[in-house]
Design goal:
By secondary structure, this protein is an alpha+beta fold. Helix content is 29%, strand content 26%. The protein has a single domain (13-140), classed as Beta Polymerase, domain 2.
C-alpha cells in the first residue's frame, strides 16, 4: 500500500521487457493484457503504470512465480484459479490472469463466482511493441472484450477509445455516449 504523499511506483517499459525476457528464457508463454497491452497494440506508452497484466497458463504458474522471484517479485495475492498477484519491494505489481488451454487453442479462465471467461485462440495472435521491441499481447478484439462486464473508469474509456480510433472498430456499450437503439 502506498503512503499518502509518496509517488506511485512505476512499471517501466524496461521492466516489462525484462519480465517478458525472463519468462521467454524460462520457456513460459505470456501475453500482455490490460493497460500495457493496449499501449503495446498502439506502439506507445499512453500513461504511467504501476502494474503489468499477463495472461499465462495455470499449469506454468509455479515456473512463473519462480522466474519472477528472481526479479524481486513475491507472491502477494493468491486468487487461484482466476488470478494471482506478485509484488516487488518497490511496489510494482505483476497481475497474472490464469487460463487453461483447450485442445482447440482457446483459453478458459475460471472466475471466482464459478463462471468462466473464454479467450478465443485467435486473440493470442496479437503483436505489439513496448519500448520499440515486439511483444506478444492479446489482439484488439480480445482487449476490448476484456474491458466489458464492469463499469469502466476514465482510463478504461480512454484505452478503448484509442483502440477504436487506431483500428477502426466500433465502440461497444458502455464506451459510447448513448445507449444503442433497436
Amino acid at each position: 500500500m502506498r503512503r499518502q504523499g509518496t509517488l506511485a511506483p512505476m512499471m517501466t517499459a524496461a521492466a516489462v521487457l525484462d519480465i517478458l525476457h525472463a519468462l521467454q528464457v524460462a520457456s513460459v508463454p505470456a501475453w500482455v493484457d490490460g493497460g500495457w497491452g493496449v499501449g503495446a497494440l498502439l506502439g506507445i506508452q499512453r500513461r504511467a503504470h504501476d502494474d503489468l497484466d499477463l495472461v499465462v497458463d495455470i499449469e506454468q504458474l509455479e515456473v512463473v512465480v519462480q522466474t519472477l522471484a528472481a526479479l524481486g517479485f513475491e507472491l502477494d495475492n493468491d486468487g487461484r484459479p482466476t488470478r494471482v498477484s506478485l509484488h516487488a519491494a518497490d511496489g510494482r505489481t505483476v497481475d497474472l490472469h490464469l487460463v487453461s488451454f483447450t485442445p482447440e487453442g482457446d483459453a478458459i479462465q475460471q472466475l471466482q463466482d464459478g463462471s468462466t471467461f473464454c479467450y478465443r485462440a485467435s486473440g493470442f495472435a496479437g503483436r505489439g511493441r513496448i519500448g520499440g521491441q515486439p511483444v506478444p499481447c492479446l489482439d484488439v478484439a480480445v482487449q476490448v472484450e476484456c474491458h466489458l462486464g464492469y463499469t469502466p473508469d476514465a482510463g478504461d474509456i480512454a484505452d478503448v477509445q484509442a483502440l477504436a480510433d487506431r483500428f477502426g472498430i466500433a465502440l461497444p456499450w458502455p464506451y459510447f455516449q448513448s445507449k444503442p437503439s433497436g
